[in-house]
Amino acid sequence: MKTVANPSQRLRLGFVGGGLESSIGATHRYAAQLDGHFELVAGVFARDPARNRAAAQAYGVAPERVYPDFQRMAVAEAARADGVQAVAIMAPNAVHVPASLAFLDQGIDVICDKPLASSLAEAQQLLERARKGPALHLLTHNYSGYPLVREARELIARGAIGEVRLVQVEHASAFGTHPLEQQGVKALAWRTDPAQAGASSVLADVGVHAHQLLRFVTGQEVSEVSAELSTLVPGRQSDDNAHVKLRLQNGARGMLWASFVAAGHRHGLQLRVFGSTGSLYWHQEEPDRLELRHQDQPHQILRRGEAWLSESARLSTRIKAGQPEGLLEAFANIYSEAAERIMARREHRAPSAQSLLCPTAEDGVRGMRFIDACVRSDAADGRWTQA
């Protein structure tokens, strides 16, 4: 089970984004601090100066470490003896690459929200820079932090369901069912603005999570896609629904549904993997339950926290079986693994094997390559397109 870090070993963390009105900002903040690995000490939390200062005050950040933009923050913090050791970026998609580059160039490790970029070209530029080091670039695909997602990964790797043949994954939410961006709701306005979100709003917002979950659990890459991207809410400037047929590298077939107009759904992330001898089913709204269904044996329901789960699942668990864990704990697993990767780099040692599960810019580029292939396939009336 997880242990809380020694306060003397906390990493100094900065934020880009995450103001008081940001729900994802609150999630990042709670997750970063849950295991005691990080202390928030600096940031640019909002473009508006008053909102920027208000967030800093609420978070206990000293006034002199509140910055008007990420460029000045990166330079100023790098010059301080007590400057930030890592920065978390949770601004709109178009900010991810320029902000990441600003801190990487100062030798400051980056923890960035998904998607990696707003275009594949930008993502590849960032990856090339990150590979040069020394600073790390890590990505918060937080759903891969759930203990039973990691158990599913281990079961497939051990051959518990045989060879993977079929995958059904969906992230079908309802937050964009109504045209709230046309009513001035800021949280949806940038998500449905191609200039800020990228070429496919729905894939950048929820589709990349489904894509990464598929890759993480099965160990398979998507080789080709046949996609239909749709705009179902009248007057919307971006797509809001995607149906994507998949071909995987091992010859398996799959389907990915990404939507934010699935009326009546709440979160809607779930995964089914069918192998030659059995299948697995996991639903994010019931994250402590994993169904292992054998073709010729009794079915099993696996629960988080049980002693017979894999080491990877146990290391991702905080609370004993029977007590629910959820989104914040899964997100905190990513932050704790990021902390271990960052500390290992600074201490010139190998990181723990568990921390290598933390997604990186490499994963981000694969996500952007998937989006790019889907956009090209849709433009060609669903033609099979290499991913």
Automatic annotation (TrEMBL):
Report the SUPFAM superfamilies cross-referenced here: Glyceraldehyde-3-phosphate dehydrogenase-like, C-terminal domain, NAD(P)-binding Rossmann-fold domains
Pfam families registered for this protein in UniProt: GFO_IDH_MocA, GFO_IDH_MocA_C3
Q: Which domain of life is it from?
A: Bacteria
* Alphabetical list of InterPro entries matching this protein: Gfo/Idh/MocA-like_OxRdtase_N, Gfo/Idh/MocA_oxidoreduct, GFO_IDH_MocA-like_dom, NAD(P)-bd_dom_sf
Q: Which residues form the Gfo/Idh/MocA-like oxidoreductase N-terminal domain?
A: 12-132
Coiled-coil segments, which residues? none
Q: Where is the GFO/IDH/MocA-like oxidoreductase domain?
A: 149-280
| PANTHER family listed in its UniProt record | CONSERVED EXPRESSED OXIDOREDUCTASE (EUROFUNG), OXIDOREDUCTASE
State the name under which the record lists this protein. Gfo/Idh/MocA family oxidoreductase
Source organism per entry reads Pseudomonas qingdaonensis
